[in-house]
Amino acid sequence: MERALRRDRRLARRLRRLSRQRGRSMPSRLVSCTPRPWAVALLLALSVGLMVSGISTSEPGVIWAFAAVWPVTLYAAFRLLCRWTEPSASVPAERGTPGPRR
Known about the structure:
Strand content: under 5%
Number of strands: 0
Largest sheet: none
Radius of gyration: 22 Å
Structural class: mainly alpha
Helix content: over 70%
């Protein structure tokens, strides 16, 4: 039975993932998050809606809601842009290759 459990790759992967997540504190999990594009778009739409609503109504609750959502939106957008611009591990970087000759 133990041999069969050791050979189960899916179980091993889940256990590794659980052990990695338990050892990390909440701030480190938030810093390492990678937001999805649809989530950033949703946050951006919510932020713009709250901003327009706050400007037009000057309602303190709406302004405070915008103040709470806007930094989260900026952070998620920044993380998403960083993920999109970082070099991929699957594509080898070509360093030291000569550029076009003039």
